[in-house]
Design brief:
Transferase(Phosphotransferase), domain 1, Phosphorylase Kinase, domain 1, Ser/Thr_kinase_AS
């Protein structure tokens, strides 16, 4: 016996059949989608309009969509299509089947330096494109770096990003504390692209070491370590690696 039409509609949007949930966000879920005709797999970010009520949230979503529309680069996740219904906003996006770089680091323990170098080069290449368009990400971390089927980096989650003018300083502190630049956590104005570069340095450390350079359960103590640049390079790192004693393990940022 066939299912009611309403049930079939609930499992598809536009030309895509919706599958399993592959992620959770502030405003909804991310589901795996499959194009009905081509069988191409996509990530469908479903934003529930009833959750986007505060002015700041509306601005955040609008800014993220605007930025994703602008950027086209091999190492930045692509936005293919936007479908709007009365209750939801569907962002049809490129699907990165390899999952988060975070999980890759955890599974490996630490990433061999030649491979870490390749990842880092791809992150910088994507970020260079972002900064060339006067856009700052402000939430770079392994959880926001996905891997495609060929283990290539895809930068995602531009929810905290912003557009800046040449020479403009920003003041808003955002992102994950473990990856935040000293000037940001100190409450000072900061050069937009430099805060992203600091986060990249922390990511590189996490890649080659398997743990974070700055970590503490107490946020105040964590900030003091970052401001004092209090970290050490393990002995197993080669002199060629531009990073700097063993720490328990990399953990999901707060």
């Amino acid at each position: 016996m066939s299912q009611p039409d309403s049930s079939r509609r609930a499992k598809s949007i536009g030309h895509y059949i919706l599958g399993k949930t592959i992620g959770e966000g502030t405003f909804g879920k991310v589901k795996l989608g499959t194009h009905i005709l081509t069988s191409e797999r996509v990530a469908v970010k479903i934003l529930e309009k009833e959750r986007i009520v505060e002015v700041a949230d509306v601005e955040r979503v609008a800014r993220e969509v605007h930025i994703l529309k602008l950027i086209r680069h091999p190492h930045i996740v692509q936005l293919y299509e936007i479908i709007e219904t009365r209750r939801q906003l569907y962002l049809i996006m490129e699907y990165a089947s390899g999952g988060e770089l975070f999980d890759y680091i955890v599974a490996k323990g630490r990433v061999p330096e030649p491979e870490a170098c390749r990842f880092f080069h791809q992150i910088i290449a994507g970020l260079e494109k972002v900064h060339a368009m006067n856009i700052v990400h402000r939430d770079l971390k392994p959880e926001n770096l996905l891997l495609d089927e060929h283990n290539n980096i895809k930068i995602v989650d531009f929810g905290l990003s912003n557009v800046f003018r040449q020479g403009q300083l920003l003041k808003t502190a955002c992102g994950s504390p473990c990856y935040a630049a000293p000037e940001m956590i100190a409450g000072h104005s900061y050069v937009p692209h430099l805060c992203d570069m600091w986060s990249c340095g922390v990511i590189l450390f996490a890649l080659v070491c398997g743990y974070l350079p700055f970590e503490d359960q107490n946020t105040s103590a964590l900030y003091k370590k970052i401001l004092a640049a209090e970290y050490k390079t393990p002995k197993f790192i080669s002199e060629a690696a531009p990073v700097t004693s063993p720490h328990p393990s990399i953990s999901r940022s707060r």
